[in-house]
Write a structure and sequence with these properties.
single chain, 330 residues, mainly alpha, Tyrosyl-Transfer RNA Synthetase, 2 domains, 3-stranded parallel β-sheet, two-stranded parallel ribbon
Length: 330
């Protein structure tokens, strides 16, 4: 059976965009693969975060994935830092990189511009090497991601292919899997930028999965639209309406064509009300499950420990193979 893997940094709070862009598809097909989810706590250290916040976010993410439908009989969930083979292979994969190609990575350039003068950017710079290791370590075939992560998966393939050409076939080259609808859910107030979990908690354009329901409703009802007054999908000319159509299409499991036809005669206010009601019903179900899990921290810690023990066995086998093939194992 092939392997599917995804990772999430314990920074910020999980958003509706995170669910639509990656979590939903992963859950739907987890039984078809050897499925792994790692909480990318080492990646999360590229900028300073309060240690207590990191710890709380790790438990929040674990509980939220369970609430969304992760089946522990099919999926391992663990902390990246508990499987140090990620770092070991990440360091080795950095030897396959050039300074020039890493400096041209889109996310590096955009994130670097956001750093303050006191922040260090080396973690961002070598991020692709560690991300490649996260995936190659388990010979993953499929990586469900949002559209903004495609370049990183392409770089993972590049690095794996280079290694294979030098040392012989060692790594499976992964394919990225981007959802057909909602691959890039945009900020409700500024639909020219994506909805990000690193946005401040009071950001009016970001729907956090654990937001108070009334806050979520207000955010949707105040979403930016346009002055035309017609509902149809056109990302270039109607980004706000198109964004809302994408959200409701995913929640209702409908095509863009179907939702466009369904709501074409609605006023903007009635349409937003419909979106708000459906999003609230959907999120409430997940929140109810979330708190059942989140209130049992010992259970969550056990899940992460058990997941790490199993993942470590898989990762160690690959690292031993790598060490042998490159000449480190006597």
């Amino acid at each position: 059976m092939k392997t599917m893997i995804t990772g999430v940094r314990p920074t910020g709070k999980i958003t509706l965009a995170n669910y639509i862009g990656g979590i939903k598809k992963f859950i739907e097909q987890q039984k078809d693969y050897n499925s792994l989810i790692f909480i990318a706590d080492i990646h999360g250290l590229t900028t300073y975060i309060d240690p207590n916040e990191i710890r709380n976010n790790i438990l929040d993410i674990t509980a939220l994935y369970l609430a969304c439908g992760i089946d522990l009989s099919h999926t391992l969930i663990f902390q990246q830092s508990d499987v140090l083979e990620h770092c070991n292979l990440g360091f080795l994969m950095s030897f396959q990189c050039s300074v020039g190609e890493l400096s041209r990575m889109t996310q590096y350039k955009s994130k670097k511009a956001e750093l303050s003068k006191k922040d260090k950017d080396m973690g961002l710079f070598i991020y692709p090497a560690l991300m490649a290791a996260d995936i190659l370590l388990y010979d993953a075939s499929i990586v469900p991601v949002g559209a903004d992560q495609r370049q990183h998966i392409e770089k993972t393939r590049d690095l794996g292919e280079r290694f294979n050409k030098i040392y012989g076939k060692t790594f499976e080259l992964p394919e990225y899997q981007i959802p057909k609808i909602g691959s890039k859910i945009m900020n409700l107030q500024n639909p020219s930028v994506k909805m990000s979990k690193s946005a401040p908690k009071d950001d009016k354009g970001t729907i956090f999965m654990l937001d108070d329901i009334e806050i979520t409703k207000k955010k949707i009802m105040s979403a930016c639209t346009d002055s035309e007054g017609k509902i149809y999908f056109d990302e270039d000319n109607k980004p706000g309406i198109s964004n809302l159509l994408s959200i409701i299409a995913v929640i209702d499991d409908l095509s863009i064509e179907d939702v466009s036809k369904k709501y074409k005669d609605y006023t903007y206010n009635d349409f937003k009300t419909e979106v708000a009601d459906k999003v609230i019903d959907f999120i409430l179900k997940i929140q109810n499950e979330f708190y059942k899990y989140r209130n049992n921290e010992e259970y969550l810690k056990k899940i992460l420990k058990d997941g790490a023990d199993k993942a470590r066995n898989l990762a160690n086998k690959k690292m031993e193979e790598v060490k042998k093939i490159i000449g480190l194992k006597l």
